[in-house]
Amino acid sequence: MIDAVLPWVIAGFALALLLNAWRLLRGPSLADRVLALDTLYINALALLVCQGMLWRTAVYFELALLIGLLGFIGTVVLSKFILRGEIIE
Amino acid sequence: MTTLLELAIVVLLIVGVLFALIGSWGLAKFHDFFKRLHGPSKATTLGVGCVLLASVLWFASQGRASGHEVLIAFFLFLTAPVSAHLLVKAAMHLMPGRRPPPP
Fold first, then answer.
1. Which of A13, A56, A68, B28 could form a disulfide with A47 if both were Cys (CB 3.0 to 4.6 A apart)?
2. In this complex, which of B9, B33, B40 lies closest to A39 when CB atoms are compared?
3. How far apart are CA A68 and CA A87, in angstroms?
4. pTM for the whole thing?
């Protein structure tokens, strides 16, 4: 039953990624694009976890952890850049 | 018992992907940044949390339980409010006219 559901779940996350990419390309202001990137990495993380469940491998969890860590750092750095105009003061 | 566990995993997966889709749709549909922030920061985080919980149950039912998903979920729930707060600060810096007058 899970193997029948998982491809649809992955398709749903792919659709969410497409919506985020549309906002990333469209977004009127810089903050919109940073927000779209933030959502995009979270959805990509969930898609990788679903893919790991489908292929029954635990390799993707390290990958998901890395994406979560680096995505958060990227969001913080970009917000700081918008706020201050420089990253390292 | 196994069927009940499978049913729980499937329900968690479907609820998770629905929440993530609702969050992303809200991000694409709303017409103001401060409205757009609601979808990703709340709905998407909850959806990904549901998917990670389903993954915990799935790998525990296979006898290969690991703490990685719990770590990811904890880190995600910790960082989502922080990044949302920073994004609001950045947006208020970009759009200074949107700040409400002090009481």
1. A13
2. B40
3. 20
4. 0.89
* Chain A residue at shortest CA distance from B90: A83
Q: What ipTM does the predicted assembly reach?
A: 0.87
Separation between Cα atoms, residue B83 and residue B62, nearest integer Å: 35
Give residues 43 to 82 of B whose Cβ lies within 8 Å of A. Answer: 44-45, 47-48, 51-52, 54-55, 58-59, 62, 64, 66, 68-69, 71-72, 75-76, 79-80, 82
Supply the DSSP symbol for B100.
Answer: P
pLDDT score recorded for residue A6: 92
Alpha carbon distance B62, B65 (integer Å):
8
Question: How do the domains of chain B map onto residue ranges?
Answer: 2-98
| Spatial separation of the C-alpha atoms in residues A53 and A40, rounded to whole Å | 20
With CA atoms as reference, the chain A residue closest to B45 would be A42
